[in-house]
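Entry 12.
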Amino acid sequence: MSLSGLGLALRRGLGVLPLVTVLVALAATAGVAASADRYYRDDVNVRTGPPNRYVIEVPPQAATHGGYFKVTSDEKGRVTRVSFLVDGKPTGETVYEYSGATSLPQATESYKQGVLTGRSKITRDAAGQTTRIDFFTAQGALTGYTLTKWVAGHAERTNFTPDGERRWQSKEYFSSEGVLTRSITQGAGSNSYNESIYDTARGVVKSAKQFTNGQLQISYVNTYDDDDDLIRQDLYSDKGTWYGAKVYEHSLLTKKLYKFSSGHTQETQIKYDAKRWAESAQMYVDGKLICTFLFEHLPDGTTKRTVAQGPDGALLAEYPDRYVDEVDRTGHPPNSTTGIIHKAGNWW
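Predicted 3D structure (tokens):
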């Protein structure tokens, strides 16, 4: 997942690459004369984000259902705090810190249930574009960092573990107005990548495709509710045949369903804790439980490790620094070779 797309993932639940250290995309509203709270339905990613640009302002009473942003700005019009609301209740907050009279933040603090969970330090170039973001726990331990190189009008981002191991990389393309129009993301160890096209007026994904070894494998068709929250993503083969869907509830991915041409079915059911961090996932093939994934998180929510256990509780595999909620028959994430596999051979 791209860096500026992370806030969008939190908002929409897209989760192509499930990183949980997330900066919410925010934007200052021009012309604000005094500190104020405003509510927005959508946000769009911009070159200088974070913060990003908020769109479709609504009255407070409209933000009591679905997912919305509550944005607090100071007397200079700079966004200082955002709460993401689900059905009117805050699920997390990000506070932006500025140095002197600068118009763009140099640091953030993230909160869950009112508790500080993480911090970040933002390094920018002369144009205000990020070149590096370091992520920390509330106690100051580094959990990862993202480096950005700006090339001919697009951003090339790479995210690393604290030890310098690559987690993912992306390319982001922007309009002449500096709004994100297209992104390509790829996880470490994967021979697949995802391409997304964005609605520049609302920030939602208009279309998405997955390619493996350069060939189209999957096309995604998104369904949004009246609040622009993603509720379903249908999957189609390269020939246009429906074969699966992802289901979202309260802006969180809760279920994956597949029906293959062979007639076999596969399903993953995902559960979350009170902080809305993935807690566990169960994967079924033809209705039979294959394994349970357990997710370990650092204090800021970054996935420290995924563990796969068999129905009897036996350790099947480990995936350091990775979120994994589905695997192929050999225990590897689809189109990837990552993971420490303890159960050799086919899992089903």
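Annotation: The radius of gyration is 20 Å. DSSP finds one helix and 24 strands in the chain.
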